[in-house]
Amino acid sequence: MTPVTVRVPAKVNLQLAVGPLRDDGFHDLANVFHAVSLFDEVTASPADSLTLRVEGESIEGVPTGDDNLAARAARLLAQQLGVPAHAALTIRKNIPVAGGMAGGSADAAAALVACARLWGADVDLRPLAARLGSDVPFALLGGTAIGTGRGEVLTPVQVSGRFHWVFALADGGLSTPAVYAECDRLREARGERPGPPQASPDLMAALAAGDAKALGAALANDLEPAALSLRPALRDTLEAGRAFGALGALVSGSGPTCAFLADSADHAESLVAALTEAGVARSVVAAHGPVPGATVL
Fold it and tell me: What SUPFAM superfamilies does the database record attribute to this sequence (predicted)?
């Protein structure tokens, strides 16, 4: 057996509509996922046991034990196939850690694909992905899609052209459960009773038309007030991006990464330079989307 390397993208949530808390502790969502060109790579190599190594910058906080989602993915697949979970996994991180861009879920999806290829298995990975987490199925799919249920039920979305993005990466992360809990607390304090979440027709039309200006106006994230409550400094980051001409700005997912839509690749590069100079983020990077999901290299 030869090693298998899989490249997998980060995601930005173009819309994250959060419904009321369910009895199982999750929320119903209308989650418009968009895969962007920030990639992790996961390599699965032959081994006599399951091992894990994580490489890259700013990887503090990435679990390297049994609770790592990529390792859990390998064990789940092995259990499903009835084979030993023997693989040496190497994760090369480029997606921000705990940044609201689903890096851990992306690594789990990549591990499923890499181990399936390493072990010679031809199996539908989507049900296993859904068992691992709400964002894992989209990392397999890529492109742009609406996630319903708790985000794992995917419907691909028609997109014309390419969109250009800038991501401002913050120091430290935000706990996704903590952000959802803060969202519930803020809603209760305001007496809000959210209804069933739905994808925005304006957002769908902008994607189909490839209209960046209309897309920027339609970006929305119900978790953003909670992320700003827990990390008030993100307001300065969002305001700076808007002041520098971003077509749209929002906190990505549960944060703390802030996403800015540009009108061109050149505009994206100028936003990177301006936000870097302003000092409102740990680092700033440009990317584009949509891009494919987990892909064997």
Answer: GHMP Kinase, C-terminal domain, Ribosomal protein S5 domain 2-like
pLDDT tens figures, 219-264: 999 999 999 999 999 999 999 999 999 999 999 988 899 999 999 9
Question: Is 93 one of the annotated active-site residues of the chain?
Answer: no
Q: At residue 81, what are phi and psi to the nearest 5 degrees?
A: -85, -15
Residue 214 marked ligand-binding: no
Sheet of 283-289, strands arranged across: 248-251, 258-262, 163-169, 283-289
CA–CA gap between residue 8 and residue 43 (Å, rounded):
11
Question: What is the CB-side half-sphere exposure of residue 180 using CA atoms within 13 A?
Answer: 17
Q: Which domains does the chain have, with CATH numbers?
A: 4-157 (3.30.230.10), 163-289 (3.30.70.890)
Alpha-carbon distance of 278 to 261, in angstroms, equals: 18
Of 135, 225, 151, 133, the C-alpha closest to 182 is 225
Single-letter code of the amino acid located at 65: G
How far is the C-alpha of 80 from the C-alpha of 115, rounded, in Å? 12
